[in-house]
Amino acid sequence: MRGEPRGPSTSFPPTPAPGHRTGRRRERAFLVGIEYRSASRVAAPASDTAHRAQARDVARQRDQAEAQARNGDADRNSRAFTAEESLAELRELATSAGAEVVGEFLQKRDRPDPATLIGRGKLEELKGAAASAEADVILFDHDLSPSQQRNIEAEAGVRVIDRTQLILDIFARHARTREGQLQVELAQLEYLLPRLAGRGKEMSQLGGGIGTRGPGETQLETDRRKIARRVRHITEQVEQVRRTRAQQRQRRESAPVATVALVGYTNAGKSTLFNALTQAGVTASSRMFATLDPTIRPVTLPSRRKVLLSDTVGFIRNLPHALVSAFRATLEEVQRAELVIHVSDVASPSRAEQEQQVEKVLRELEAEGKPRLLVLNKVDLLSAADLERLRATQPAGAVEVSALKGSGMGTLLERVDELLTADPVSRARLRVPQAEGKALSLVEARARILKREYRDGVVELDVQAPESLLRRLEAWRVQFQG
């Protein structure tokens, strides 16, 4: 490395727009999925005192393999994605990263191999299949330890990328604001740091000959220092982002305006729903993680109360912890929201599992106790029979919508209105002189007028209005009867 490392990435070429000609072909990706049949313990090879460093590496590999197997069992016990569904999701991720999928295979094993994850025999088969498909990169639907990644690359002769690195690359491609770019770079650098060792000759001893003998400093150590310095710098900037967001949130919370956060699995239709409710025009795409940078827009509810609606990054199965940590400044909007709208894609065959994964991330954000509203999106894609089954099994209080068609928006806003407790709405009677034009305009703008009568230069109004508005109109409030 030379100079300060900035935002390492898998560097898939950008996906051209439809009809766009480019001289550079898309990278050819070969996909590898793994399914574990049991979580047997993985024995470490014997080692002696002359190879303590190797023994420690083997122990780390063993521990990770056991953790991977335990995670596999935990996933199965909670009806996680099947291996085929998971591989299909990896296919979508690869497409979102700009790659062309040229082959794939799914291996079933009793336990992970500590050195190569898939075993030596399967690695030979993978090497031949990737070469036949002329693959530029092999994508694993699994997290790889640094040594596993190096071993597979050395044998296969092409770049190897695990699931976490692929997701980080997609995030890097879609981050548009400085805040988003900083948070992605921080996650990428933290991912890269333990993977520096053994990444080529550039990591060997600096120079040679006179003046370089003795302890010296290896290129690896130099690179680690540079990355650690960059991580500290970005962390300080992200902390500044958090402080700025906290100040903005404090200003918002000083006024009685509630925040409602949209959450959901990636590609569930959150941005399309956000646009339908706010006309914000944010990017809505079928690509995974098309929305990365947060957007907040005001929405007027049927009661005429205003709320702030926040569109957030989509969640995904096994969302890398580094990303959850790096994006905590953004995801704090979910933590502080008064209502969380969980958008679910009812047309997805993995809907139940996707909902479970969203709940898992909400628990990690310590937001599982927030008031929740389940929104069943994409009902326009269901047949009449499927829609009937959905209505027979859906949780009480769930709202059916089609964000793309704009149907169900009124019902959704009514439900949000019912669930919000901040600045509650109540019924009142007002007697406002017609000369008080400012007060009358305020009532027109922010209250629901149920009845209006004109008497001797006074407007008598029966209204439903938020308490914050009624306090401002207290001088004209009269006792309500009936």
Question: Would you mind describing this structure in some detail?
Answer:
This protein is of the alpha/beta class and 482 residues long. It has three domains: 28-161, GTPase HflX, N-terminal domain (Rossmann fold), CATH 3.40.50; 256-419, Rossmann fold (3-Layer(aba) Sandwich), CATH 3.40.50; 425-478, Alpha-Beta Plaits, CATH 3.30.70.240. Helices cover 42% and strands 18% of the residues. The protein has 15 helices and 14 strands. The protein has helices at residues 52-77, 83-96, 120-132, 146-156, 163-174, 178-192, 219-254, 270-278, 321-326, 328-336, 351-364, 384-393, 409-419, 437-446, 467-472; strands at 28-36, 100-109, 137-140, 159-161, 258-264, 295-300, 306-311, 339-345, 372-377, 399-400, 425-433, 448-455, 458-466, 477-478. Strands 6-7-5-8-9-10 form a six-stranded mixed β-sheet, with helices on both faces. The chain has a four-stranded parallel β-sheet with strand order 2-1-3-4, sandwiched between helices. A four-stranded antiparallel β-sheet has the order 12-13-11-14. Helix 2 runs parallel beside helix 5, helix 5 (163-174) runs antiparallel to helix 6 (178-192) and helix 6 (178-192) runs antiparallel to helix 7. The longest helix is centred in the middle third of the chain and has 36 residues, at 219-254.
